Amino acid sequence: MILARRPGALSLIPGLLACAAVAVAAVAVQALELRLFGRGWIDAIVLAILIGAAIRSVWTPPAAVRPGVEFSARTLLEIAVVLLGASVSAATVMAIGPGLLLGTALVVTLAIVVSYGLGRLLRLPRRMAVLIACGNAICGNSAIAAVAPVIDADAEDVSAAIAFTAVLGVVVVLTLPVLGAALPMSDVRYGVLAGLTVYAVPQVLAATLPVGAVAAQAGTLIKLVRVLMLGPVCLALAVIVALRRRVDAGSEAADAPPRRVPLGHLLPWFIVGFLLMMGARSLGLIPAAALPALGWLTTALTVLAMAALGLSTDARAVARSGPRIAAVVTLSLLALIGLALGLIGLLALV
Fold first, then answer.
1. pTM for the structure as a whole
2. pLDDT at site 165
3. I want to staple 313 with a disulfide (CB 3.0 to 4.6 A). Which of 9, 53, 250, 294 is the partner?
4. Residues whose CB falls within 8 Å of the CB of residue 24, separated by 6 or more in sequence, listed in order
5. pLDDT tens-digit profile of 25-79?
6. Cα dist. 250→23, 253, 259, 263 in Å?
7. 73 vs 149, 213, 274, 305, 315, CA distance in Å?
8. pLDDT per position as a tens digit, 326-340
9. What is the C-alpha to C-alpha distance for residues 228 and 95, in angstroms, rounded to an integer?
């Protein structure tokens, strides 16, 4: 009876089921990878986009499916960003020391600026350049997914940025140990390098555990600090987008009184939620026993959202901009590695 009074909720079901089917297929392929090769070369998040985009290339979702797909691509993704805040605590961040903490924030900031500049230099659209810059500098897929609703990015832009970043992320995991072996680096230095350059926490572990437990601990701590930068970066982007909208509105009607920028444009609700979840984790309000379940739910919602993005993606549009995106992602990563090595040398880590 309750659902009958809410036709809006009922309209979401076909799209949610379609996204769930794609998400289940992605998880199944990842499980097959683990069974055959002992590790997952392509994450379920990326697989969900690829499978969804492949389906979209031969099937156009009917009108009945679109509300659920749009809901999954935006609302479920925003909820996942909120839950991501539970993975970071203030105590963990402060454990790395003020010098390395500030240095990590500086590297992230410079990496975003450099990557965005490269994107615009190679004539990428503004939103695409922002997505790649944030994904490269912060945490890959998660950062791209979190920034997308702040800057109103298109599904094609999000899918392309995640696809190319994910491929390069796997390459980094495979080649970083070679770079670490070629350079005279201690376990701590190598861990910091991995934490500053590898995109996802599981990938940091994959890149550092072969070196040792100290490298894995250092890399994980630095990686969590990069994740923490997601909140301030999204807030800054929200302010920039809101001010840009205000300027555009002013140019269209110069004589009109200035409009107030809505608070929701300056501080999106999911960024507030992210910071509140981080605060709750720091204050011990989230039981340790609940963290694995929250992590699982975050991943599940993200895979669903990526499936929706795949189903919304025109693969032909992605292919047209492929070479330039690949070039920007590669050059941005090389710049990030250079900045990371510079910070390690400047701090003279043990």
1. 0.65
2. 77
3. 53
4. none
5. 999 999 998 888 877 667 787 788 789 888 988 888 899 999 999 899 878 877 8
6. 43, 5, 9, 18
7. 9, 37, 18, 4, 17
8. 889 889 989 999 999
9. 14
